[in-house]
Amino acid sequence: xxxxxxxxxxxxxxxxxxxxxxxxxxxxxxxxxxxxxxxxxxxxxxxxxxxxxxxxxxxxxxxxxxxxxxxxxxxxxxxxxxxxxxxxxxxxxxxxxxxxxxxxxxxxxxxxxxxxxxxxxxxxxxxxxxxxxxxxxxxxxxxxxxxxxxxxxxxxxxxxxxxxxxxxxxxxxxxxxxxxxxxxxxxxxxxxxxxxxxxxxxxxxxxxxxxxxxxxxxxx
Length: 220
What we know:
Blueprint: E1 2-7, H1 11-22, E2 26-33, E3 42-43, E4 46-50, H2 54-57, E5 64-67, H3 76-87, E6 95-96, E7 107-108, E8 113-114, E9 119-120, E10 125-126, E11 131-132, E12 137-138, E13 143-144, E14 149-150, E15 155-156, E16 161-162, E17 167-168, E18 173-174, E19 179-180, E20 185-186, E21 191-192, E22 201-202
Parallel strand pairs: 1-2, 1-5, 2-4, 6-8, 7-10, 8-11, 9-12, 10-13, 11-14, 12-15, 13-16, 14-17, 15-18, 16-19, 17-20, 18-21, 20-22
Antiparallel strand pairs: 3-4
């Protein structure tokens, strides 16, 4: 099994540790964060080492790394940590769940994290540092740029171009052959039928509370 260090000590890192432990050929040896964020010597019963001195204990020629942090600031923080890890000489791994549906021609970059029940059709290209949480549909010939985060139950139809540093929320639907500009936010439940401008925010309609009181409902 290949040894790997996880950058991060939050929920995303805990999830990454679980998946790598139970569904990969990687052996998680420990965690790392920058000294300012190191509040405990262990996480998930493994050592946590300050990133500033990580290479002294875990040689980059012998250990890989996965940067497992969230989508804050449109994934720019995660992208910056990837850059710093590579400067130190670490190879960044990608994880694709054995329970995802993928095809042999899948093109995927480094530091990608693709969870269960994703359906990724043929001729899809995924850039670096992309997270696909569980249960998404990525249509044929779609291209997803670097540093993107796609949440759950998102439907991206065929031939879509997703720019760098985008966030797509739960249950969003994207029609075929449109372009989503870089640094766009597509909110939960949004229906996107035309191109999205760079740095655009597209929100779904929230469900409002009904004026009908619970006592008037029949059969519930």
